[in-house]
Amino acid sequence: MNTQVDAPRQLSDISRLKLILPSEIHELRRIIDRVYRERGIALQPELELDSLNAVKAVIADKTTQYATILPHSSVTRELAGHVLSAYAIADSAMVRTIAVVRPQGGSPRKVVLTALIDEVRRQAGRIKRSMGSADVVLLGQG
């Protein structure tokens, strides 16, 4: 499955695109806004949509010329199918931290949980390596 991400783009270049972003209730949007604010770059999305499927449908329509910023893992199928293309974002602060949450203390399931956590770490590392230095990517039409 080819989910390659093209060369990184600068935040200032991305801010000039017709962007669809999630509303400010979403953690991803708060990360995006924080990084742009820290860099002193104005960011005015043209549209706010909270539905991932709706965002992907609008982006896939080449007549709209919209772009968005999403986690790479949320569009791997579309990248593999050449429906969308992606560019890494050239800013190491544009990351989202995720965690596996499990019960505290030992249990018979500990072996299974440990294996699951190890696999999540391996897959996250694989995705991160395939994306370059950014954990969030900019999407556009394929």
From TrEMBL:
Which InterPro entries does UniProt cross-reference here? Answer: LysR_subst-bd
Chain ranges of the LysR substrate-binding domain: 7-123
Task: Tell me the protein's name.
Answer: LysR substrate-binding domain-containing protein
Q: Sorted alphabetically, which keywords does the UniProt record give?
A: Activator
Q: Which Pfam families match?
A: LysR_substrate
Q: Which positions, given as ranges, span the membrane?
A: none
